[in-house]
Prior knowledge:
Layout: H1 2-9, H2 14-32, H3 35-61, H4 65-78, H5 83-95, H6 99-112, H7 117-130, H8 133-146, H9 151-164, H10 167-180, H11 185-193
Helix pairs in contact: 1-2, 2-3, 2-4, 3-4, 4-5, 5-6, 5-7, 6-7, 7-8, 7-9, 8-9, 9-10, 10-11
Amino acid sequence: xxxxxxxxxxxxxxxxxxxxxxxxxxxxxxxxxxxxxxxxxxxxxxxxxxxxxxxxxxxxxxxxxxxxxxxxxxxxxxxxxxxxxxxxxxxxxxxxxxxxxxxxxxxxxxxxxxxxxxxxxxxxxxxxxxxxxxxxxxxxxxxxxxxxxxxxxxxxxxxxxxxxxxxxxxxxxxxxxxxxxxxxxxxxxxxxxxxxxx
Length: 198
């Protein structure tokens, strides 16, 4: 029966295939009470999720952020605790201009893996763009605490301090970012814009 559902799913558009397979397998296992179907399902889910992760990565690399977000979302339906899929969903949604969806995915990353510095960084970037500067500072500080060599988080921390009107707190962050990565233009431009002695 599961094979028949699998064959039926191949005619569905790819964003729906994994969800259909999962629902079909769960239904089959429930109706038949078959332990075997549950085992087959558990063995099948990672490969289905992997299919969507690969598809999503292709869309992300080609700049098709809405399609990437849809594929990552499907992968997270199949594998809801995969912090990598959730993180990429957050990134794709952010790049697609969907900050609400990005925040939702990134907050789930933090629940699943609280030491994921990239999730704090991206949430901090969204906060910076939304003008919630205290939140941007808090989130970038968390990212830096987890990964001290995170140059981009140092840059965003400096930017948040600068926007709050504290160039004396911003300058050390920009200097630290440039010490880690001397080619970060945003850090260099912001540091150059701060008056000497800050």
